[in-house]
Write a structure and sequence with these properties.
The protein is flat and about 65 Å long. Helix 8 links the parallel strand 7 and strand 8. It has 11 helices and 11 strands. 44% of the residues lie in helices and 23% in strands. With 299 residues, the chain is α/β, with parallel strands linked by helices. Strands 3, 4, 5, 6, 9, 10 and 11 form a 7-stranded mixed beta sheet that branches. Strands 1-2 form a two-stranded antiparallel sheet. Helix 1 packs across helix 2, helix 1 crosses helix 3 and helix 2 crosses helix 3.
């Protein structure tokens, strides 16, 4: 038995969709299906009725669901209690941060915080969005820094977690600038001359934000996908080399835009704006984490 099988099962019971749950769990659909099958093999009975759509649980699956929730809740509570003993004397605050924010927003924000709060020890764990959220819900970090967009809200229970809004970030298309400071490529492009496009991998939250924006854009740009990557900093390097256009956070490129190395390749209608939120559990944290949270609230 692996606890992730129970987590997969609970997700499937909530979404009633193998494909949606696989996306939320950041695995391929075949891998997700194999894990559900492994749980069924352990149980010795079918837990999911695959003949219906949307997917539904069998009577055995309905019996297992509340037990699975109780087991997972008990494990989380036990871990929180153990970490509470550890954090009492801790002089370090632990942040879980999605990779994109870890390289862009977080460094600037934490430097400004230290100017008003004073120096403090911190540990940054960079992860994908799902795993960063899991760090918070499993009690493996003090604070979670994540972005929020209406199309991709974080499913965190407000009765158990608090949130502060830290500011905004903007994704926009950027390209290498020529000698006159103009972008080498400019959107929306033309039918016969599509703009070379550096796209994010579909499992990346930034990629889903951009693709959703393009799918609903009234004047969809003409793009030719050249590179598929799960790293904003990799796309940043590709853009600097003049390989194409990528949607990058403003906090990553503002210095290059001011120096004339990069230029925006599209107008304001091509931008994707999102909020940056800080989350914490409502349980008591260590003294340092509580002090930092209070300082952020005062700011």
């Amino acid at each position: 038995m692996e606890t992730k099988w129970l987590e997969d099962f609970v997700s499937l019971a909530e979404t009633r969709s193998f494909s949606r749950s696989a996306q939320l769990r950041h695995v391929t659909q075949p891998a997700f299906s194999r894990r559900i099958q492994a749980l069924e093999a352990w149980a010795g009975v079918d837990l999911v009725d695959r003949s219906s759509y949307p997917t539904r649980l069998t009577p055995a699956g309905q019996t297992l669901l509340p037990q699975a929730l109780e087991v997972l809740g008990g494990l989380q509570a036990a871990r929180n209690l153990m970490r509470g003993h550890q954090s009492t004397g801790q002089d370090m605050i632990e942040f879980a941060v999605p990779h994109s924010l870890a390289f862009t927003f977080f460094p600037h924000w934490v430097m400004e915080l230290r100017q008003s709060f004073g120096a403090f020890k911190s540990r940054l764990v960079g992860l994908n969005v799902h795993d960063a959220v899991m760090q918070l819900t499993e009690g493996s970090c003090d604070l979670l820094l994540a972005y929020h967009h209406p199309s991709q809200p974080l499913q965190l229970n407000p009765e158990r977690y608090e949130m502060l809004s830290l500011g905004h970030e903007t994704l926009a298309p950027y390209a290498k600038a020529d000698a006159d400071g103009q972008p080498l490529f400019r959107l929306p492009g033309r039918q016969l001359e599509p703009v070379p496009y550096l796209a994010y991998a579909p499992q990346l939250a930034l990629g889903r934000l951009v693709e959703d924006h393009l799918a609903h854009h009234p004047e969809a740009p003409r793009l030719q996908r050249l590179v598929l990557c799960d790293s904003a900093d990799a796309h940043y390097e590709y853009v600097q080399r003049g390989l194409g256009v990528a949607w990058l956070p403003w906090s990553m490129v503002h210095a290059d835009c001011k120096s004339g190395r990069l230029a925006c390749a599209g107008g304001p209608q091509m931008e994707v704006r999102f909020d940056v939120h800080l989350y914490r559990p409502k349980r008591r944290l260590g003294p340092l984490a509580e002090a930092v949270w209070d300082a952020v609230m005062q700011r």
